[in-house]
Amino acid sequence: MDNSPTALFDSYEADFQAFIDTIRQKLDGDAEDSGEARKASLRRAEMELDEADEMVSQMEIEIQGIPQSIRPQYQTRLRTAKADLSRYKKQYKDVQAQVARSSLLSSSSNHAAFTSDEPYGAASDRTRLLAGTAVLEDGTKRLQDSHRIALETENQGADILMNLRQQREQIVNSRDTLQNANNSIERASGTLKGMIRRMYQQRVVTGAIIVVLVLLIGIILYEKLS
């Protein structure tokens, strides 16, 4: 598993490019299609635009963790991705408007040709209703996906906060341990200094006693000899 600081950015960028390629195919390659097939293709392109937009958002998040020394080149790639996304969003709106105009003209033509002998002549209305239902279902699915992503992000945030709290507790415990060790060292140092001071005092006392004894012995010997 690649743990480099740019790995996630590269992954999101690759996913974004894959979405852009399929969007380009749907907007450019299906121009000859018409009717419901074309509308279904546009609906899929709209969902993929949403996914591509999500990839750009993830790239914006990941770029914050890239080292400053190499961040400018990734910022350039991010700007290029945003420009591509804006361009295809505009193209999608243009194609959608063209399809809507074509559908409206087709609906008007079919309505003019409708007669009372055709009980299902309002098929265009039924088609629009079905298309509207499909759009609602797609919207519901996108909302569910967005909710799922929000929950996953919230869970990840909670995990990060928990890890940070644990790390903070470890740092506090380590600091307390070091403080206790420092206090123990200071106490031991004070004890050693006291022992050394008493040792020197005992040496002085012992030396004084020896000098007094020598003097006494000398005096005694002097008295006896004299």
TrEMBL record:
Source taxon at top rank: Eukaryota
InterPro entries xrefs: SNARE, T_SNARE_dom, v-SNARE_N_sf, Vesicle_trsprt_v-SNARE_N
Localization per record: Membrane
Pfam families the UniProt entry points to: V-SNARE, V-SNARE_C
Ranges of residues in domain T-SNARE coiled-coil homology: 128-195
Coiled coil regions in record: 42-98, 161-198
Entry-linked SMART domains: t_SNARE (SM00397)
TM stretches of this protein: 204-222
Topology in membrane: Single-pass type IV membrane protein
Keywords recorded for this protein, A-Z: Coiled coil, Membrane, Protein transport, Transmembrane, Transmembrane helix, Transport
Similarity annotation: Belongs to the VTI1 family.
Protein name per the record: t-SNARE coiled-coil homology domain-containing protein
Organism: Mycena chlorophos (Agaric fungus)
